[in-house]
Amino acid sequence: SKLTNLGHLEMMWRSRVRFHPLLVRILHKSRLRYYGKPEKKMDMPYQAYFEVADGSGMMSMVLWNSLCPEWYHSMKVGTVLLLDKYTIKTSYPFKTHPTPGDSQMKRFATIEISLNVRDPPTEISIIPEEMVKPEWGLPEVKYRFITRSELDDLPNNHSCDVIGLVTFVGRAERARKREHSEDFWLYRWAHAIDGTSDQPFILELFATSQPDVFEHIHPMTYLVCTQMRVIQDLTENPSRTVYLTTSNESQIFITGWHKGQPYTKDAKVKNFIQWTKSQSEADQIKKTVIGGYYPFPRPPDSFLKY
């Protein structure tokens, strides 16, 4: 069929009501958001957004309401979609944005693609990877993997991807989203090593929309976390500790979930796998810990410093 592209959409979206089909690849995926309120009677108040791209650039795509339970888990990073009967809207200004793996890619930030169950009902097709043709010019998914030895030199709030062997995982904890609020964030702490430093990655992992992964992070699993943010303690604390926290677009993968993921082709991921082959499993198991209370960042060792 006759296709359009994202660059063309941005130029002529105000003058058209109906648009030609789009062929795009998903580069980033947000967590699922529930926006229901007691006074509003909506069947499925869910929303998720994705960053999708073709040869002309990258744009946000929003999946609404009952399309979320139907499509959210099938739409993975790297999935190619054929979209028809979608609508175009002005972008929501307060949305978070992932850091693209390809810094040269053009971002169309003024508008977003909206997928709805009616008015009009969007037609979504997933194109199997083996049927994707090079002449379609769809970009590959790119990552920003770092090693533990590189972490200390990165600035606060820098976005990166990491892979490591889990040596510690804490119990799930809760934090209030706002003071006096009834809503909580669920999170757990983990340590992962990659052989490039004596120090582990310290990871603050909030529950994303992947409960099956979040609940099964165990010592000795290979853990991949994407779109993590660097938190540098900016005080004068000499024993400052750098850690990483999840963002709205973070994806977490553990052993058993890696097959077929786009990051398996990344050079730093391949280097990590080579390093694990040189390690003795029995030696590493002796160093692993699970559960317990993990106070972090650590309080000073005396009340005087406190």
UniProtKB/TrEMBL annotation:
**Pfam families documented for this protein:** RADX
Recorded GO molecular functions are:
single-stranded DNA binding
Stretches of the chain forming a coiled coil according to its record: none
**Domain of life of the organism encoding this protein:** Eukaryota
Name under which the protein is recorded: RADX protein
Species source reads: Ptilorrhoa leucosticta
The encoding gene is: Radx_1
